[in-house]
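In the current project phase, the collection of sequences with tokenised folds has grown. A sample record is quoted in full directly below:
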Amino acid sequence: MEQWLVWIVLGGGFLVFLIIEAFSREKKPFRKALLTMLSGLAALAVVNLLSPYTGVGLPVSILTLCGSAVGGIPGVTLLLVMNMIL
């Protein structure tokens, strides 16, 4: 995947979170959107750190990084479910 495409996907996801938080009358929508994206990346890191103990892990690729950043914790959960089903 091209690097510019990754930046467009991440930037678009951030803008979507920012718009949602702005319409929800959040006091600091930029911080909330950034924390949502960082929580998804942290969840992906925790899943991969615990994979030797749980036997469940996700390969780190551009797709999983974008999916976890744009989807947050529910995005990581969806990636895990799809990995276990497929």
Remarks:
- The chain is about 80% helix and 0% strand.
